[in-house]
Amino acid sequence: MCAGYYHGGNIMHQGMDIHSEVKALDLGSRIRRLRLKKGLTLKEVSFLTGLSTPLLSQVENNIASPPIATLLKISKALEVTIGYFFQEWGSADRIVLVRREDRNETMLRIHEEASVVGYRYESLAYPRPDKHMEPFVVEVEPREENDMVFYNHRGEEFLFVLDGEMEFRGSDKVLVLGKGDSLYFDSHIPHALRGLKGKKASVLSVIYGPG
Questions:
Q1: Nearest to 105 by CA among 7, 4, 17
Q2: pLDDT at 72
Q3: What is the mean pLDDT of the chain?
Q4: Is residue 210 very low, low, confident or very high in pLDDT (cuts 50, 70, 90)?
Q5: What single DSSP character describes residue 95?
Q6: What is the reported pLDDT for 26?
Q7: Tens-digit pLDDT profile for residues 74-83
């Protein structure tokens, strides 16, 4: 969850920064290697995930970085946990420490139909492979109610507001959370978040996505 909306001259400058960041994450290469290892075509992965072939191609070529919900669908189709795409190869430690300065910025959530950046994620346990949970620190951008984008994925999610104020929408509920508030929900329910009062909210997010 990061740098909001871009208009006019700012689109190209900010867009170039975003493209560089997405490319540096190299999630696409990991996804492509695993897909080819399993002998699957983009069309077959599209069928398994319900995602469009052009979108999957953009992800594999590091043009677009998938939101958590999209990455969960891809990981399920490729029969791995979401942690597969974040882990450091060769790491098998049962106890891992991630210092604040070493937090790995794992992805940008990008609305596929507009030049809108929604969230910025930092992984808190990326060295550990085969995790049952994925913890992140997430920045939730402020936005208008009509611009909120809903996502859903299998599993459950826990949110704890570290700073700021945010709004959660899911099912028929509209909830406002402030610093110190927490929320646990079935992430199969379409849900959306936004920062309030024109400011970002910093949130601890722990996601469990069964295979």
A1: 17
A2: 82
A3: 78
A4: low
A5: S
A6: 77
A7: 988 998 877 7
Number of residues that this document lists for the chain: 211
DSSP at 208: E
- Whether 43 and 5 have beta carbons less than 8 Å apart is answered as no
Burial code of 40-73, b = ≥16 C-beta within 10 A, e = fewer?
Answer: bebeebbeebebeeebbebbbebebbbbbbbbbb
Does domain 10-208 fall under CATH 3.30.70.100? My reply is no
The model's pTM is 0.64
Residue 84's CB is within 10 A of a number of other CB atoms, namely 17
Residues of the chain by 3-state class (helix, strand, coil), percent to 5: 30, 30, 40
User: For residue 138, what are its two tokens?
Assistant: 């997430």
- Alpha-carbon distance values, 150 to 45, 55, 61 (Å): 22, 17, 25
Closest CA to 73 of 151, 1, 164, 173: 151
